Amino acid sequence: MLHPSITLGPAQRDTRVPKTVQEQCGHFLLCLLAGSQPGCHSGPGCSEGDKHLTPSSLLRIGQLSNVDLNEDIHELETELPRQRPNEIPHNEKLLSLKYESLDYDSSENQLFLEEERRINHAAFRTVEIKRWVICAMIGILTGLVACFIDIVVENLAGLKYRVVKDNIDKFTAKGGLSFSLLLWATLNASVVMVGSVIVAFIEPVAAGSGIPQIKCYLNGVKIPHVVRLKTLVIKVCGVILSVVGGLAVGKEGPMIHSGSVIAAGISQGRSTSLKRDFKIFEYFRRDTEKRDFVSAGAAAGVSAAFGAPVGGVLFSLEEGASFWNQFLTWRIFFASMISTFTLNSVLSVYHGNAWDLSSPGLINFGRFDSEKMGYTIQEIPIFIFMGVVGGILGALFNALNYWLTMFRIRYIHRPCLQVLEAMLVAAVTATVGFVMIYCSRDCQPIQGSSVAYPLQLFCADGEYNSMATAFFNTPEKSVVNLFHDPPGSYNPMTLGMFTLMYFFLACWTYGLTVSAGVFIPSLLIGAAWGRLFGISLSYLTKGSIWADPGKYALMGAAAQLGGIVRMTLSLTVIMMEATGNVTYGFPIMLVLMTAKIVGDYFVEGLYDMHIQLQSVPFLHWEAPVTSHSLTAREVMSTPVTCLRRIERVGTVVDILSDTSSNHNGFPVVESNPGTTQVAGLRGLILRSQLIVLLKHKVFVERTNLNLVQRRLKLKDFRDAYPRFPPIQSIHVSQDERECMIDLSEFMNPSPYTVPQEASLPRVFKLFRALGLRHLVVVDNRNEVVGMVTRKDLARYRLGKEGLEELSLAQT
Amino acid sequence: WRRAVEPGLPAICPTEPECRSLLAAFAEDSAALTGCLGRRARPVRLCQGCHGPYRRLLAQYGTIARAVGNSSESHNCAKSILTSDRLQIVVTLSEFFNETWEAANCANCLKNNSEGLSNSTEEFLNLFNKSLTCFEHNLQGQTVDLSPNNYTEVCKNCNETYTKLNDLYNHLQRMIRQGGESGQPAHLCIDVEDAMNITRKLWSRTFNCSLPCSDTVPVIAVSSFILFLPIVFYLSSFLHSKQKKRILILPKRIQSNASLVNIQEKYS
Predict the structure, then answer these.
(1) Inter-chain contact A88–B246, Cβ cutoff 8 Å?
(2) Which residues of A touch B202 (CB under 8 A)?
(3) What does the domain layout of chain B look like in residue ranges?
(4) Which candidate in A634, A658, A760 is best for mutational testing of the B interface (most B CBs within 10 A)?
(5) Which class would CATH give A377-419+475-613?
(6) Comparing A45-49, A596-600, A723-727, A797-801, which segment has the lowest mean pLDDT?
(7) A668-693 pLDDT per residue, tens
(8) With an 8 Å Cβ cutoff, are B258 and A1 in contact?
(9) What architecture is the A55-90+627-809 domain classified under in CATH?
(10) DSSP track, A372-404
(11) How many C-beta atoms lie closer than 10 Å to residue A404's C-beta?
(12) Which residues make up the CATH 3.10.580.10 domain(s) of chain A?
């Protein structure tokens, strides 16, 4: 009503507002506003809440802030929680308060400038060399972790399948196969139980593939605990257990998370979990540098998982890093290269043919012989059709998973229930597999030892059950079998049933409280229907197109994966590198593009969907297209809690310990403006900096009395990074509360600001491109009017009916 | 006959007589080996019967390859026989034999010096012959009865031998797999594999002896019990678990309702 762009007269407003309220009753915020402030729509007649919203009161806040700002703020803030807490069930249109931003924009205060000036040219060169060393270490460690996972999974899964196979063989002759079923289900459930317990009770952030979390981190959202050593340990153990437990999962996605944690750990030269500080790489102890290394770690993870160094770099480029430069790309590429090389050489030694560097990734799609399996122009429409199928199936997968995840968030939030659910899924997966194998009459002759665990069951001697190659195996091996088994190894019925069952199992499994990825299950579903497609094609055309089912299995896998995760360039390159075949480059690109276009028509990608369901304030590449009518004035939060340049300690402590407003950045204004001078913006100071100041008791009085032994250095701030102590742990005595604190040396004297009239896309661009955390909105006299943070921007989203606004919620 | 073969090159022809004799010997050996392989193709008895000719051929090829002697460059037999033309028929032949031998995995059945079959193979073949005799013996009784679909006699009487044979085969296969380097699929030699295949086919296809007992009812019971569990779980958690509520926080904003109205007007 006060906004200049609103031109409605009072009469019109009266007719329209109730209608809007009715229409929007699904929109909680508006309902709430309408309910709690019934008079507000009708103009300046309403009292209290509205008082602060009139322009004059706004001005008054600006003026008051130099006189008695804190009390005014206090008054404002206590009013808001007084309204009854409005509880709603979890939905997708929320932003959680739990998530904070990362400080990508380094605070350019005096200490920082002094330090940067001290570092000469040669020292900068050492810093650069250190970066390369760190990238090499990231690569090596990521590769080693991947090797560890691979070897342990191979051995444990081998053990499990041998035990079950022996049992089945024994009972096939004598009868009593239900015991084998029970054994298999129990083994699966108990292994998964361990995997799920450690995730649910020790580190819930290690659940899932970790790709959404890393995407958020690289986007600039601080997900609590996401790059801790504990998370890495849980993640690695969790992945091993869930793959061994026979769930429909893969171990490739979690490698990306593992690589990122390794990168974040190494680049800091210390571990807060282990309380060890190696006193190295201190220069890199800030969010900007850490983010660069995390993107290198993510790339190294992809590269170790798929043997795709270029794909890894592109993954980081596409999914994560909002801020990019050529040197960083090159360094990331170095980390990826080292990672795949490490994995390759260690695994070659493990497999007994040392230094035969021909298995570069955790999953190896095997060699596609391009001479035998070329493609012709007639097949291009077929590939496009497969892409369409992949897109539709992917969208279906995502839609089902969406409902399931919503149900899980709402009802299955207790850790014990989550563990129970994971166990049930494991048992059911085993049961489904067993029943499928039991019912299948598809027997194939054993050819040498190409099948790892041939189950004979009801087949004739010397033959094995072909359904068992798909179900009775780790998913990675099944994918490779589907790609490379000679034509005729599976009959269409087997493949059809397998696709159907595995589709639902994989969809059900993703989102459980276990750490596991979705890449391999997607590939497996796709490979199964792709192979089925290839077989039926050659059957329908009476063999006029000589179709190798393996080729169509590959295209199906690409289509399905593309339809589910919707990655573009990076996925293409990953698939190409994993197949090691450039000839298939074009069909794979075609299939992935079609799958993405078709899938995006229905629902968004799996990772984006999960990010949204977690209520993360994720900033996309651009502001919503129809948001030009919004200005900074409407977007910003106001009023702002400001600090004076020389502030009373007690005030600072009170502001910091106010639980109702957990602000992180505070604009610093001039402390004693004269009559001619207004309280203009002087700088910006962060909560973490204030806490360090309070901890070291850098007060004006103490400095004057020479009580402070030394000047505070940037190192003191870095040592506290990234886990600054909470304000409650800092003791400030009653006397000290009366002291003054001088912020001018520590605040960032040149914060980014925008005028009130700036449009949302403009604010968004500035915010996103620079990776800001706080953007101060000022008026034409440089007085603080409001503050734009990540949540203010992430609220606006393009929904089905145009622009919609998300509500903030406590989660 | 030399003249008939090379009418125009009597003296200039660089192929020395000793080279010609080497070539002739190689031709004879390869003919012998080819004959041997062909005759023993079905049922496969390659490794048992042809290891002698194969060894001779190898030796012959070795002689040719080593036949550098002390003769001068132009009189080098190895060079003139093996590498002087595009076709290189001797090399191709010898490669073909080697590849066949490798593909048959004959080395796995022969003694280390490849003179004769290894002990385990002998044992296996004995057992194999024994079971075949057993089959034959019991079948003769059957044919008198004229009931070709009823082979219960065979199944009962030969079960012991067959199980022994099967176990031995599995044992041998395991040995081979452990011995061979991992990664590459290790096979037993084709003779043993084929013998086992024939027996198994007879046993389970022709005689229909390996009838596993199918216990469908308990399997269905157990699996439907397990499949039923998730339904119970989800229903009970839906009914009994408290739905997680989110507490809405009001943003501090200038007339957020007004801006919403604004949005509504323009875009809905």
Answers:
(1) yes
(2) none
(3) 2-104, 119-206
(4) A634
(5) mainly alpha
(6) A45-49
(7) 988 766 656 667 888 999 888 888 88
(8) yes
(9) Roll (3.10)
(10) TT---GGGHHHHHHHHHHHHHHHHHHHHHHHHH
(11) 18
(12) 55-90+627-809
